[in-house]
Amino acid sequence: MGREALVGNGRTLRTWAVQRPGCPSTRNFIAPRPEPRSMLTPQAAPAPEHLTPHDLVTYFRCPYEMELNRARRSHAVDGALGPVRTPADVVPLRHSPLFNPPLGHVSVNEGRLDLGMGDRLVYEDDGEDDLPVLFPSERVKLDARFAPAPHTLIDRELGFAGRPDLVIERADGSFVPVEYKATHLFVGYHEAHGRTFDTVQAIAECRLVEVAFGRRPPHGVILYGDSAGGGAREGWVEIPYGDAEERWLRAALVQIRSDSVRPPVPAERNCAGCEPNAEGLCRYAAARYEGPHHRLPFFEAPRGG
């Protein structure tokens, strides 16, 4: 038989008196009445949107390009073009909405990458074709933690992941990510040719290497490997990585994830190398492809959907 009783904290408890056969004693089993669940109970925060260094690069050039690339990746998985959050009535922008990373101490160098006898290769993205051979076989000591290759480096704290082309361990024990570009070193690297997006990629990969190898890289390297002219057009850019660059990266990730519009930035320098534009997916492009390495002014080209 049950009865109700008040306990010290004001809650009502229901008790049952149970009589065991042949036993004169009675035991009380007290079952707390379940309290109503508050509507304000905090819920677990959703996982942040997964991003990659390439996402940062494309968002820096054109947020809409990033959205189309992500939709294309969904198409490759399930055969259907994924959702695009950019609204149909979006107003295109003239400039990237993402502010520039720190550029004050970027070093631009002509010629071959400066390597010492104590340096060695510890990571290589085998998923990339035509990477340069920088070391003899006896100085290639790939880290067993990242085998079998290609192995993605993951930053669970910031919610992004990627694969640098190469990671070099210097003689002093520091680790340096190297991103290879099969093009020439640009004169007037930043201002004239808009290669700041390469700096964005280098900063992101420095963070991934720091998380994976446990040491902060002093810098990242963009290696330009155009062999035309006997290597006269080769070069490399050294991008420092410190507290300022990490703060920029964290702020950039927050900005990208909070952007619910992701507008297009139609400019020929962006649209000329945009893969979604080459496939006719972009309706805002400032230039259209007509076969490899050929483009038409936007208003002279057929307009897709």
Characterization of this structure:
By secondary structure, this protein is α+β, with helices and mostly antiparallel strands. 22% of the residues lie in helices and 21% in strands. The strands form 4 sheets. It has a 6-stranded mixed beta sheet with strand order 4-11-10-9-8-5. α1 (53-61) packs across α2 (63-78) and α1 packs antiparallel against α3. The longest helix has 18 residues, at 196-213. It is globular.
Features:
305 residues, 21% strand, three-stranded antiparallel sheet, alpha+beta, single chain, globular, 13 strands, 22% helix, disordered C terminus, six-stranded mixed sheet
By DSSP, the count of extended strands is 13
| Distance linking N and C termini | 74 Å
Provide the spatial order of strands within the biggest beta sheet: 4-11-10-9-8-5
If helices are DSSP runs of H or I spanning 4 or more residues, what is the number of helices? 6
Oligomer: single chain
Q: How would you characterize the largest beta sheet?
A: 6 strands, mixed
Average pLDDT, rounded to a whole number, is: 80
Unreliable stretches: 189-194, 290-305
Instruction: Sum up the overall morphology in one term.
Output: globular
